[in-house]
TrEMBL record:
Family matches, as SMART domains: Flavin_Reduct (SM00903)
InterPro entries: Flavin_Rdtase-like_dom, NADH-dep_flavin_reductase, Split_barrel_FMN-bd
Protein name: Flavin reductase domain protein FMN-binding protein
Any matching Pfam family: Flavin_Reduct
GO molecular function terms attached to this record: FMN binding; riboflavin reductase (NADPH) activity
């Protein structure tokens, strides 16, 4: 007997779902690559996560409506730039449509000439290993070829629809612990 399971519609609105997801704090990244003509492409992404240590794999996802989807889908490589608290303006800039996101942004060529943003907390330079279309996003899995990090950097966090730019270690250092 072959029965097809049809899930019931959710008992919550898209807004309620988004608000609940917003309770999970994430880091903020800018994923970068080069388009077919060699042009710089970059997008603010907070759906970044580790997958495996051996082999070293990471994932991130991009909405199907994103203008940069085709560039990332056809790219052989990309770089995931993890932002510091000082780079909030970059996160906002690379999330804005219709502007030159790269104007005045300090960067250098990484592996395979992928653009790496200067001063970030960490960089994961990846081979575009696999892609999975799920719902309204494509999930990208990258094999990390090289990673670097800036020791002592405070990462930019996103929670509940807001950026958090406090230096966590600075906050702890200012607090007196004990009697």
């Amino acid at each position: 007997m072959n029965s097809t399971h049809h899930p019931s519609p959710p008992a919550f609105s898209p807004r309620e779902f988004r608000d609940a997801l917003g309770m999970f704090a994430t880091g903020v990244t800018i994923v970068t690559t080069r388009g077919a003509g060699g042009e710089l492409v970059g997008m603010t992404v907070n759906s970044f996560n580790s997958v495996s240590l051996d082999p070293p794999l990471v994932l991130w996802s991009l909405a199907h409506k994103a203008s940069s989807l085709q560039a990332f889908a056809s790219a052989t490589h990309y770089a995931i730039n993890v932002l510091t608290v000082e780079q909030r303006a970059l996160a906002e800039r690379f999330a804005t449509r219709g502007i030159d996101r790269w104007a005045g942004v300090a960067h250098h060529p990484g592996l395979h000439d992928m653009p790496v943003i200067e001063g970030v907390a960490a960089v994961f330079e990846c081979t575009n290993r696999s892609q999975y279309a799920e719902g309204d996003h494509t999930i990208f899995v990258g094999r990390v070829e090289r990673c670097t990090h800036l020791r002592g950097a405070s990462p930019l966090l996103y929670h509940g629809g807001m950026f958090y730019t406090e230096h966590a270690l600075g906050q702890l250092a200012d607090t007196v612990i004990g009697p």
